Give the backbone structure.
Amino acid sequence: MNLSGDIGIWVAAILTLAVFSFLWKDNPLFRLAEHILVGVSAGYYLVQYAYSAIYKKLYVPLFDQGNLLFIGCAILGLLVFTRLVPRKSWLSRYPIAFYVAAGAGYSIPSGLQTRVVKQMQTSMLNFLDQGSLWTNVSAFLLFVGVISVLLYFYFSAEHRGAFGFFSKIGIVFLMIGFGASFGYTVMSRITLLIGRLQFLMGEWLGFL
Amino acid sequence: MTAMAALLLLLLVFPAHAGLPIDLTAFDTPDDGGKSITLEWIPLHRLGMADSLQSLVLLRRAEDETDTLELTSLGARDSLFIDDKDLVTDEPYAYVLEARFPSATLVSNETTATPTIQWFNKSRSAVCGAVVIFTSLLLWFTYHASKGREMFIRRIAGLEAVEEAVGRATEMGRPIMYVPGISTMSDVATIASIQILAQVAKKAGKYATRLTVPNRDPIVMTVCQEVVRESYNQIGRPDLFREDDIHYVTYSQFGYAAAVSGIMMREKPATNFLLGMFYAESLILAETGNATGAIQIAGTDSDAQLPFFITACDYTLIGEELYAASVYLSKEPKLLGSLKGQDYAKAITIALILLGTILSIAGVPQFVAVFK
């Protein structure tokens, strides 16, 4: 055993153990770690966003580069603070409306391109001629999966009869997908746990 | 030897001043914002000049200037280059390729092009068509729904439980926690979640049950406050609104997860709604809620997180069920019309996939190419 002499490693190790103590039950040590994490991260992001948003994206273009268009952005941003004045808080709805509308306008065409149009193209395969039996079967499963899952998400009809049968196939495809995703993600989480244990046993206690 | 002979032959056939016979052409890159020029030429390896080539350099100059800029070094097999380096829209540029050999340096023909803006991106025609069709369907059904036309939507299991979940919190005298995900307002899942929040707030308000909403994004928090305040106003209980109940936590993903987990353990809400966009914190939140014994209704369109909600929550809204949820809960005609429009868009999508697959099997790939 070769205990670390680095104070930073000791702080990280104690905080790691404090978070792990939640496995037993909620306790003061966990709460301390939780509040440190929340407080430090809130402070960190405040400084980071003040620099990247207010300085780099507003101050520099407006004052250093003289781009007057940013005066409008500054006014919209300042309107958010009217929430602090109850009688004028309705003004804060303007920047929110602008933000939501711009976000929707930006994401709808790109979402349609990547999530609908492109997916449609890759689903329209000649599953009789993909090169080998296995790739033909894969293409056929893809075709059946896409159609049946789309039918599952059709809300205008009850899931009965032939429609119900195909939508049940859809939910089977979904669950197989979720199962594979679950296993894959759990494996990655176990890797994170191993990483923490290696830190505790190696860098902190010096066993490894 | 062959390459050298080819080069000598070229030098005899094309004197040095005639240059490199690679037919360099430049043209404005189609479907762009006027910031690039595409160049094409016959690759040198096809002319048998690859072996002795020392370097192939692309040179550019603005047409009204004399200074030449060395853009990039290319290979003997290259035949295409897209220049998007600091070009000014509507300014003409001249290009030449310079091939350096041990015995000589050959220069290609000079070619000129001007980058211009194309206001319509033809490569996105399919998307444009989809936007027009889908929007028309939405407007059509919304119009008819607002005129009072009856429209059916099927039962969604998780949403039947909302009333029960709110009632449970009321009976137990504990709060309801609503987590709107950790994404921003530009995320469709967040917008859908906030529409559901409005309905949940109305139901909670009717029973005067406390509703808490911890937030990661400050804009989302502001919207949540407005939505909850409006919902309480609509049911005639503005006195129930407490701004501190819809509060900000932190922007840090795991800081937020730790804080919400802590609140769940200490306040022990009877019901947790986890609806919106979630990432790696989904299982932490769902497991903690499960450990506190809360009834949990979750929903997201993040396929990577859905498995965790399915395993740890009582009811899960899968993908588009989240978008349909607010319609199902409110039964508001305009929203109902939009859901109907989406359903018909899905029906068209299914029909197009079936048609495309049949045409692919029949050996007509042109139809599929439209959807690039």
Summary: The CA atoms of residues 12 and 204 of chain A lie 9 Å apart. The first helix of chain A runs from residue 7 to 20.
